[in-house]
Amino acid sequence: MRYVTRKVVLFVLTFWAALTLNFALPRLMPGSPLDAALGNLQANGVQVTNAMRDAMAAQLGGAEGNWLSQYFSYLGNTLRLNFGTSFSFPTQTVSHTILQALPWTVCLVGVTTIIAFVLGTLLGVYAGWRRGTAADSTVTLGATLFSAFPPFWFGMLLLYVFAFKFQIFASQGGYSPGLTPNLSLSFLSDAVQHSILPAVTLTVTSLSGWVFGMRNNMINTLGEDYVTFAEANGLRSRTIALLYAARNAMLPNITAFGLSLGAVVGGSVLVEGIFGYPGLGNLLYIAVLNHDYPLMQALFLVITVSMLVTIFVVDLLYVRFDPRVRREVIA
Amino acid sequence: MRSLHRHTAAATAVAAAVALVVSGCAGSGKAAQSAESASSGAAGSSPGSGASPAASGSGSASGASAGGVKQGGTLTIQGDSGNPTLVENFNPLVPTELGGTRLIYEPLAIASTVDGTFTQFLAASQKFTSPTTLEFTLRDGVKWSDGKPFSAADVTFTFDLLKKYPALDTTGVWTQLSKVESKGNIVTATFKAPNVPFESTVAQVPIVPEHLWSSGLPADPSKFANTKPVGTGPFTLSSFAPTSYTLTKNADYWNAANIAPSQVDYPAQSSNQSTNQLNVASGKFDWSYNFLPNVQQTYISRGANRSYWFPPGGTIGLFLNLTKEPYNDPNFRQGISHLLDRDTIAKKAVNGYLGAASTTGLILPNLEKWLDPSIPDKGMITQDAKKAGDYFAKAGYTMSGGQLTKDGKQADLTITLPNNYSDWVAAANEVKAELSAGGINVTLDEPSAAQYTTKIQSGNFDGAFGGFGGTGVPYNDFNNALNSSFAAPIGTATVNNFERFKSPETDAALASLAAATDEAAQQAATNKIQQQMFTQLPIIPLYYGGSWGLFQTTHFTGWPSAEDPYTLPTPYNQMSLLVVSRLKAVG
After folding, report:
1. How far is Cα B49 from Cα A189, in angstroms, rounded to an integer?
2. Angle (nearest 5°) at CA A118 between A116 and A123
3. Which of A193, A260, B12, B363 has the most crowded Cβ, counting Cβ within 10 A?
4. Is A85 on the interface with B (CB under 8 A)?
5. Which of residues 89 through 148 in chain A touch B, CB cutoff 8 A?
6. Pick from B18, B91, B494: which is nearest to A160 by CB?
7. What is the DSSP letter of B81?
8. What is the value of ipTM here, to two decimals?
9. What are the strands, taking DSSP E only, across chain A?
10. B331 with B482: CB under 8 angstroms?
11. Interface contact flag, B171 A49, Cβ < 8 Å
């Protein structure tokens, strides 16, 4: 029981610290929301005058009270899931804005993270098992090459070749202009079509990390006594590779996978930006650009919570994969 | 001031890379037209004269005019930035409205941003009956798109709304007006003090329907999304999706015979500036607005029936903090001005599409008719180290060992500018090089745009890049930039006159220009202000920021051009209504 209490107290403390940081960080940025809004309007071709400044100040609504009272009303509102109205999209609530963007990012970045993990891990297992062979060199060399591609550069390249030169895929957005998101088959296939280029970009550029991690772990594990023992027993090499070596070598990769799943909702700012994808990464960029405190706070909260939850889930999964941890929990 | 930004740093590096690819693929085409050939032949009444000018074309033509223009076809305009998606907002009284709103709601009249010439919309005409009384005569037979008649009550209702909710009064009409009343089809706006040039601001307030807006608005109408807009304008909203929206022609529009497009599409822009440029290059829009390097190869020669017009849309200048030594000394400012080679600065900043700016503060050639003939060379200052040295000597500075010094200390200047305005950054680097060669120790301070805004508005800078002008009305350009009433103390924010210029002569000239109703008096007052600019240099004009209009004439003609400069080619403000009213269908 003490174990659970300690975990809960720790969780609450972590959560409170995260909330406080979410409140403080946006406000530590130099420049105010009003100045950002004015700069934005000017950049959008509006003649900015003192009259405009006054009107915008009225529209943004001056923050009430000092920092401390703002902080406590922020804490209260957050617990009631009331995030208010964003400065960037004054006609929508923050929750609505985020819920609109969330599924896009979760699907795109989530699916590509899973694909990259599975593919990268398998390649790593293969390369590690066949270490020193031509196959290993090919995989390692290929992964090195792809890891050298910056995502934005690779994205721009794909965009230019496949969207403009050959016009096979759409150049921007999550779906064709004129469509409204729904769950019909035609819309979904349109959305998948739009997601291919960003998905390829994300997968290809994140693949190599998994490959290298897995290959190195494999090689370490293959040197262990129990692998030699298995070989001496004359087990089939595939059994040794997958059940003796890979299963153990995968543990660090699973931790990393959990963490990157948690980071999924943070979106991929650069890649979403390049493809004009309607996800959280783009939203985060807009929020920071506009000093949009309500939107930033809510986005950071979503990111924090999903991170905490995945860490918790990974902890649970670890028990399943690693018998040593199981013994500790029981003891 | 959109001219200043469209190629921001986030996209610049990649944009440059793609632009190279684009231009590399394009053949070298023959010049279709030259950006430099902009003529100054804009006819029209003086801004502020209030008359409905004959020159203003279809907008002022009566709806019953025989014939009308050839109709039909879809007009595609490069739309708003849809990042991450478009947000439904057709509230004409907030600055975050979607661009199409301006084709749905009409103002009383629109003043061209080139030279202030009026085109009449809901008002058939307007005139000043005294320098403080502006009378609008409304057009007869105008209907809202729901069939209800439009009347003077809608106009007074709209103005009252702005008065009641200061968050909606983004152009500050109630800083100048004392009341707006109606009698029959006459609406009278009364000013607190004479301000004839403010006519354009009053006339351009979009009018909303009283019968729909008088109840049911949210407590804060600046957050009203108005998803079912009902206006008097030539178009109505037919469909909205998060990536594009479509307007269809309002068949009952009072001037329907002269509106050519039957439909207007606004596809959203991407968050990726390079994608936008490639979309423009591949011809997806009839009208777009983008800075393109080497436009001849990247746009004109990549498709048939294309044209562009890049007129000046504002003056980019070096603003020195006039509350600080030695920047408060006009001789020091003149010295700096004469150290600069403005042609090179313009070439670096805007690819030579636009040139050096006149130190009169007027945008040339747009406002050439207001130029004071007694100022030599149209106020163009060329680089002259000797003259600069003379001015610096008057300010107490001498050259010693390659350094400009006074009392043994080198003159120094920190120039503040936002890091994402790539044309400003290019210009600032050139300015730094030229001033350094002149012995001044120059540092560039490049914070984020928001931080830059904070710094300049509070007066926390030595020197800063900034833009001014572009309203089409000399008084508004000068008043915003120079009126000492805006010169807040250091630490208090001001958008206008942030260099904090205080000159009784200039204020007096501005006041007489504000009250002048005849052109001779307006010219005399404008001359005085130009002389102040030329001799005092409260702002050191560098080059003109561009207005990047790109057109396809496949479906429609009648775009603004150097030959027919009826407005700046900006689709993102009310000028879009002016342009759409002028288009003719092809074929």
Report:
1. 59
2. 90
3. B363
4. yes
5. 89-92, 100-101, 104
6. B18
7. B
8. 0.82
9. none
10. no
11. yes
| Chain segment B189-248, per-residue pLDDT in tens | 999 999 999 999 999 999 999 999 998 888 889 889 999 999 999 999 999 998 899 999
Q: Are A143 and A208 in contact (CB under 8 A)?
A: yes
Helix (H) or strand (E) run with residue B412 in it: strand B412-416
**Residue B216, helix vs strand vs coil:** coil
pLDDT the model gives residue A268: 82
Question: Position B533: which residue type?
Answer: M
Q: Which residue stretches of chain B have pLDDT < 50?
A: 1-66
Q: Top-level CATH class of A100-291?
A: mainly alpha
**Which residues in chain A (160-199) have CB-CB distances under 8 A to chain B?**
160, 163-164, 171-173, 175-181
**Element at B359 (helix H, strand E):** none
Alpha-carbon torsion (A18, A23, A28, A30), positive or negative: positive
Please give the helix or strand (H or E) that residue B94 lies within, else none: none
Cα(B125)–Cα(B118) distance, integer angstroms: 10
Distance from the B103 Cα atom to the nearest Cα atom in chain A, whole angstroms = 17
Spatial neighbors of A8 by CB under 8 A, at least 6 apart, are none
In this structure, are residues A279 and B84 in contact, taking their beta carbons and an 8 Å threshold? yes
- Side-by-side strand order, sheet with B403-406: B398-400, B403-406, B409-410
Show me where the domains of chain A are located. 100-291
Find the length of chain B.
Answer: 587
Per-residue pLDDT for A189 more than 70?
yes
Token pair for A121: 């891990």
For residue B201, which of B84, B116, B128, B312 has the smallest C-alpha distance?
Answer: B116
In the DSSP assignment, the letter for residue B285 is: -
Taking phi over 0 as left and psi of -120 to 50 as alpha, with beta for the rest, B216 belongs to left
Distance between CA A275 and CA B183 in Å, rounded?
55
Residue B283: which residues within 8 A CB-CB, separation 6 or more? B302, B303, B306, B552
Round to whole Å and give the CA distance between B223 and B361: 37
Pick the residue from chain B with its C-alpha nearest to A33. Answer: B450
Residue pairs spanning A and B at CB distance below 8 A: 204
Q: How far apart are the first and last CA of chain B?
A: 35
How large is the C-alpha radius of gyration of chain A?
24
Q: Is the CB of A171 less than 8 angstroms away from the CB of B242?
A: no
State both tokens at A261.
């799943």
| A76 token code pair | 């209260």
- C-alpha B242/C-alpha B234 separation (Å) is 23
Report how far residue B116's alpha carbon sits from residue B197's, in angstroms, rounded to the nearest whole number. Answer: 9
Burial of B195 (0-12, 13-18, 19+ CB in 10 A): buried
